[in-house]
Amino acid sequence: MMPRAQLTTFLIVTSFLSTVTYLGAPVHGGVLTSYDVSSLDIMSKIHTDHDATTKASSDFGHIVHATPNGVFRPSFPADIAALIRLSLSQPTPFTVAPRGKGHSSRGQAFAPGGIVVDMSALGDHGHHTSHRIDVSVDRMYVDAGGEQLWIDVLRTALKHGLTPRVWTDYLRITVGGTLSNAGIGGQAFRHGPQISNVHELDVVTGMGEMITCSPEVNSALFFAVLGGLGQFGVITRARIRLEPAPKRVKWVRIAYSDVHPFTTDQELLISKRASGSGFDYVEGQVQLNRTLTQGRRSSSFFSATDLARLTGLAIDTGSVAIYYIEGAMYYDDNTAASVDQKLDALLEELSFVRGFVFVRDASYVEFLDRVGREEQNLRSAGAWDVPHPWLNLFVPRSRILHFDAAVFKGILRNANPVGLILMYPMNKDMWDDRMTAMTPDEDVFYAVGLLRSAVAGGSGGDVEQLERENAAVLELCDLAGGGIGCRQYLPHHASRDGWRRHFGAKWGRVADLKARRLICEGAEWFGL
Fold it and tell me: Which positions are annotated as active-site residues?
C-alpha cells in the first residue's frame, strides 16, 4: 500500500494538474511523466472531501473504522480497471477496495490510506438504475450490474413475471457483494446458494483486466470469483438464472421446545427437494428464554398474543430456548385452491408443539422484503445504526447438537441478545466445490447466524461482552484445537495463517492465483 502521506500528495498534485491539462496547459516532467490524459480523467473521479471519506470509513458493523484517502466514483467498469492499473503503476501500489452498500461488519470494504470504489456510482450518469439490469425472457436470465441492489433486480424481473431462485434475507445489498461471498437463504436447500445460479460474470481483475468468464470460458476465474471474498476481482456484471415468479406465499412459523425434533424436522424438510413438494423456503430461528420473558412484546411476524403464548411455552417447559422452523409455500392462481391442503398435509409429518403453528398469507414481494420493513422499524427506533458484532458460521450436521448444548445452553445461556439467532440446514451437493466458498465436509451442514446488535442502554449494549461471547464460540469451533470444525461465513481473519486455515484444501489454488497476480492486492472482500 502506498504510504498515506505519499498518496495524499499524489492526489493533490494530480488533481491540480488534471485541471490545467483540460485547460490545455502543457504537462512536463515531475510526477506525471508516466500518466496520460486517461489517468488524469480517473483522478478527477476521486473525491477527497470529508463527507465522502468519512462515509467510507465506517460500515454496517460499526465495530472498526478506517479512513481512506479518497473515494472513487466510476461511471463505467472500465474506470475501475483504469484505477487498478494506475495503482499498479506506482512504485508502491495503493489499496483499492470496492464498496457496495457497506453492509460488511468488520471493515472488509475499507481501504485505510487507499481508495474506496463507490460501486453505486456505476451507471449513475443520467440513467435510471434499471439501465444496468436487463432481463432475457426467452433465455430466462437477468444481466445485473455488480452494484445493483437485489430489491431492484426483483422489481425488474417481476415486470416480466420472472424471479431469481435464491434470495438472501435482506435485499438492499448488492449483486456483486453477495456473489463474492455465496448468497445464502431459505431457498438454498433446493437451488443452492446464489453463486450456484450464475451463468456468466464480467470481472475486473487485480491486474486491471476486464474479463468475461463462465463455466466454459475463463473458467478458473469464474469459479475463483464466486464465493472468493473479493480476492480475485471486482464483479461488474452477473448473468443470473430466473424462473417463473409466484404471486403469493403461505408464510409459516412452527415452534419447538426441544432441539432434537427441531433439527430432525428441518432435515426432513430439506430432503423434499423436488419442485412442488414441501416448502419452497426453509429457515430456522433460536429464541433464548430471556428474550421471550424480558424482550419486546411484538414483532413484525408475531402479535403480542402470540409472543405471550410462546413465553408461556418457554416457562412451562423450562426450555432454555424456543426454536422455530420458518417455512414458505409459494402459490399462484392455479394452485391457490390446493395450497392450504398441501400445507396441512406437510405439517402432519412434523413433530412441533401442537397448537403452535402461526400462518400468514403474504404477497411474494412482501415476503421477500420482510427484513426491509423491519429495517424501517429499527431506523425509527434508532436501533439500526448501532454496532453489529455479527458472527456467521457453517456447522457440520454431526456436531449441531453439540453446538446447541455448548452455545445456546452454555455460552449464551443467560444472554438476552437484541437481534436474531438463525439456525437452518443446507444440502452440500447443491454447492459447486470448484467455487472458492468454503463449507464443512458433510452432506448436510447448518448455517448459524448470531446476528446481535449492541443497543445503547439495553442488556445487549456491551459490545465487548458480545465480542467475548463470539470469541468463546470461535474457540469452541476451532478445528485446529480439536473443536467442532465450523467454517466462518462472511469471514474475517487477521492473519495469513487464519486465511490458510479458512481455505483449507483450497489454499493451494488460492495461493497459485495470487502468484499469477489474478488476486486483488489489499482487498479482503466485496463490501456488500
Answer: 103, 169, 283
